[in-house]
Amino acid sequence: MTCLLHDVRIAVRALLQRPGFALLAILTLAVGAGATTVIFTVLSGVLLKPLVVPLIRRRRRMDLQRRNSQFSRTARVCRWTANLT
Q1: Are 15 and 22 in contact (CB under 8 A)?
Q2: Which of 1, 3, 20, 28 is packed most tightly, with the most Cβ within 10 A?
Q3: Quick check: is 7 in a domain?
Q4: Residue 81 belongs to some domain of the structure
Q5: How many domains is the chain built from?
Q6: What are the backbone angles phi and psi of residue 25, rounded to the nearest 5°?
Protein backbone atom coordinates (compact mmCIF):
# COMPACT_ATOMS: atom_id res chain seq x y z
CA MET A 1 0.00 0.00 0.00
CA THR A 2 2.85 2.35 0.73
CA CYS A 3 4.27 1.72 -2.76
CA LEU A 4 0.94 2.65 -4.31
CA LEU A 5 0.73 5.88 -2.32
CA HIS A 6 4.30 6.71 -3.24
CA ASP A 7 3.55 6.16 -6.95
CA VAL A 8 0.41 8.31 -6.73
CA ARG A 9 2.37 11.15 -5.10
CA ILE A 10 5.00 11.03 -7.83
CA ALA A 11 2.30 11.01 -10.54
CA VAL A 12 0.49 13.98 -8.99
CA ARG A 13 3.74 15.93 -8.68
CA ALA A 14 4.61 15.21 -12.31
CA LEU A 15 1.15 16.31 -13.50
CA LEU A 16 1.33 19.50 -11.43
CA GLN A 17 4.69 20.35 -12.97
CA ARG A 18 3.19 20.04 -16.47
CA PRO A 19 -0.42 21.28 -16.35
CA GLY A 20 -0.75 21.24 -20.16
CA PHE A 21 0.09 17.56 -20.31
CA ALA A 22 -2.30 16.84 -17.42
CA LEU A 23 -5.11 18.70 -19.21
CA LEU A 24 -4.38 16.85 -22.44
CA ALA A 25 -4.39 13.47 -20.65
CA ILE A 26 -7.70 14.24 -18.90
CA LEU A 27 -9.31 15.46 -22.14
CA THR A 28 -8.12 12.38 -24.00
CA LEU A 29 -9.67 10.10 -21.40
CA ALA A 30 -12.92 12.11 -21.42
CA VAL A 31 -13.22 12.03 -25.23
CA GLY A 32 -12.51 8.30 -25.27
CA ALA A 33 -15.16 7.57 -22.65
CA GLY A 34 -17.66 9.84 -24.40
CA ALA A 35 -17.04 8.30 -27.81
CA THR A 36 -17.43 4.80 -26.43
CA THR A 37 -20.74 5.76 -24.80
CA VAL A 38 -22.05 7.37 -27.99
CA ILE A 39 -21.09 4.42 -30.17
CA PHE A 40 -22.68 1.92 -27.78
CA THR A 41 -25.87 4.00 -27.52
CA VAL A 42 -26.21 4.39 -31.29
CA LEU A 43 -25.54 0.73 -32.02
CA SER A 44 -27.91 -0.37 -29.30
CA GLY A 45 -30.64 1.94 -30.55
CA VAL A 46 -30.19 1.18 -34.24
CA LEU A 47 -29.46 -2.52 -34.21
CA LEU A 48 -31.18 -3.99 -31.19
CA LYS A 49 -34.30 -2.15 -30.09
CA PRO A 50 -36.03 -1.12 -33.35
CA LEU A 51 -35.85 -4.61 -34.77
CA VAL A 52 -38.13 -6.06 -32.13
CA VAL A 53 -41.25 -3.96 -32.78
CA PRO A 54 -41.42 -4.18 -36.60
CA LEU A 55 -40.92 -7.92 -36.52
CA ILE A 56 -43.75 -8.34 -34.03
CA ARG A 57 -46.04 -6.09 -36.07
CA ARG A 58 -45.15 -7.95 -39.24
CA ARG A 59 -45.76 -11.28 -37.57
CA ARG A 60 -49.14 -10.16 -36.26
CA ARG A 61 -50.10 -8.86 -39.69
CA MET A 62 -49.12 -12.17 -41.28
CA ASP A 63 -51.12 -14.09 -38.65
CA LEU A 64 -54.18 -11.93 -39.26
CA GLN A 65 -53.89 -12.37 -43.01
CA ARG A 66 -53.57 -16.13 -42.60
CA ARG A 67 -56.59 -16.28 -40.29
CA ASN A 68 -58.66 -14.09 -42.60
CA SER A 69 -57.86 -16.28 -45.57
CA GLN A 70 -58.79 -19.40 -43.59
CA PHE A 71 -62.12 -17.87 -42.58
CA SER A 72 -62.90 -16.78 -46.13
CA ARG A 73 -62.14 -20.30 -47.41
CA THR A 74 -64.42 -21.75 -44.76
CA ALA A 75 -67.18 -19.32 -45.70
CA ARG A 76 -66.87 -20.35 -49.36
CA VAL A 77 -67.16 -24.03 -48.52
CA CYS A 78 -70.00 -23.80 -45.99
CA ARG A 79 -72.79 -21.77 -47.55
CA TRP A 80 -75.60 -21.83 -45.10
CA THR A 81 -79.07 -20.58 -45.66
CA ALA A 82 -81.40 -19.84 -42.84
CA ASN A 83 -85.16 -19.47 -42.94
CA LEU A 84 -86.35 -17.49 -39.95
CA THR A 85 -90.07 -17.48 -40.75
Answers
A1: yes
A2: 28
A3: yes
A4: no
A5: 1
A6: -65, -45
